[in-house]
Amino acid sequence: MQTLYALDTQQVARGSDEYFTGDVQVRMLFPPTDHTSFSGAYVTFQPGARTAWHQHPAGQHMIVTDGTALTGTRDGRVITAGEGEVVWCPPGIDHWHGATAQAAMTHLVITGSRDGENVEWKEKVTDDAYRAGQPSTVTESSVQRLPAKTRAIVPIAAFTAQGDMAALGAAIDAGLDAGLTVNEIKEVQIHLYAYAGFPRALNGVATLMRIVGERKAAGRTDPAGPEAGPLPAGGDNLETGKAVQTRLVGQPVAGPLFDFAPGINELLQRHLFGDLFARGVIDDQARELTTVSALASMEGVEPQLESHVAMSFNVGLSHAQLADVAAALAESVGAIEAGRLAAVLASPPPTPG
């Protein structure tokens, strides 16, 4: 008798953090049976996601159904497989597989079992090993390296948004060495209250204060830099904020979301585009680099990341410069964060209106 595995009976689960890096979804299709010693599953990896090192006692076929798959072995070889291609991994071979940093990937895996076991998990794949296996898709002409001082903003913003204070301390130390002033880094933290929330912005300021104190105790004097300017006369930044928002977006902002909740746009105009942008210290380009770096380092905010990439273009940053932001994220923060930005940069720009 034949067996139907109905769609609503297929188990869907998120890939365990113990065995996967990044966002992975596993959809079991069929288990081993008394007559078959193999199982099947669809596995979807978001950009930058991959398995840990592992091996299969009875081997595994990987059939790519969407996107581009990477699979590497201990000897440093990495196979790149496209849609419709199949990779066979023999029994007992340590390997990993996953998506590129730029795009999601789904493959169908047919995994053999031996003595009731189908996988032996090992340690996670490091970011360095994963980056080394990336296909070369970026040419020299597609990247315009940012000045070291500007580039140093990227990990500072990313680690502030993630709440990783240990990594943030090292990034602040490197940023001061690269020429950022104390007030410029302070302004990055203040700006991020609107995107990462007051708790992480305050923790960021506290980390900056600690690093500056440690450097001073070691005999190093860091320039404070210009202070923030006064707010516009009258203390009402609504009109100022509307003008800044329109300049960044390229047109007056309207739409169903703000029709539904007009108060949130007024708060954006008064406090974000009004109060914050009126402070000075860092310019519009630095503020957008700060925002893009932070949003790329947070889960679930892809629509906002797409919007701020578009705003970055409107304030004069180039596609090549934003590609360097993605490269800086890959070097200093992680492949997943870089992949989020790279995926936006690889997508066609939205149609106006």
From TrEMBL:
Gene3D superfamilies: AhpD-like, Jelly Rolls. Residues 42-110 form the Cupin type-2 domain. GO terms for molecular function: peroxiredoxin activity. It comes from the Bacteria. Signal peptide: none annotated. Residues 217-237 are annotated as: Disordered. Residues 223-235 have a biased composition (Low complexity). Residues 144-206, 264-340 form the Carboxymuconolactone decarboxylase-like domain. SUPFAM superfamilies: AhpD-like, RmlC-like cupins. It holds the Pfam family CMD. InterPro entries: AhpD-like (IPR029032), CMD-like (IPR003779), Cupin_2 (IPR013096), HNL-like_cupin (IPR047263), RmlC-like_jellyroll (IPR014710), RmlC_Cupin_sf (IPR011051). This is Carboxymuconolactone decarboxylase family protein. It comes from Marilutibacter penaei.
